[in-house]
Amino acid sequence: MAVKIRMARHGAKKRPYYRVVVADGRMPRDGRYIEQVGRYNPLTNPKTIELDLEKIDEWISKGAQPSNTVAHLIDIVRTGATAPEKKQKVSKKQAAKAASSEE
């Protein structure tokens, strides 16, 4: 059985909220999981990352593989750094409006 540590998406449309779960690799993304080991909310400012590192380390020692995203979140929590913010893209209309207001 391939056990993975990955994120399960919850929340409304365009309002994502993630649970970090330990699940069998054959289960669907939001399907049955073995244990919940954390939460991640990208919509708050700053982003909220709550992980139980003791449980995660225990599962990794048993052979569970974290996904790339979860591995990145674990590194952020271990170093104590804040989650990097994505640059907001400005549409052409907004850029034109900002340029006209500056003049």
UniProtKB/TrEMBL annotation:
Highest taxon of the lineage: Bacteria
Ribosomal protein found in the keyword field: yes
Gene3D superfamilies noted in UniProt: 3.30.1320.10
Keywords, sorted A to Z: Ribonucleoprotein, Ribosomal protein
Gene Ontology CC entries for this record: ribosome
Entry's transmembrane regions: none
Region of interest (Disordered), ranges: 83-103
Pfam families: Ribosomal_S16
Family, per entry: Belongs to the bacterial ribosomal protein bS16 family.
Entry-linked PANTHER family: 30S RIBOSOMAL PROTEIN S16 (PTHR12919), SMALL RIBOSOMAL SUBUNIT PROTEIN BS16M (PTHR12919:SF20)
Cited NCBIfam families: S16 (TIGR00002)
Protein name: Small ribosomal subunit protein bS16
Record organism: Olsenella absiana
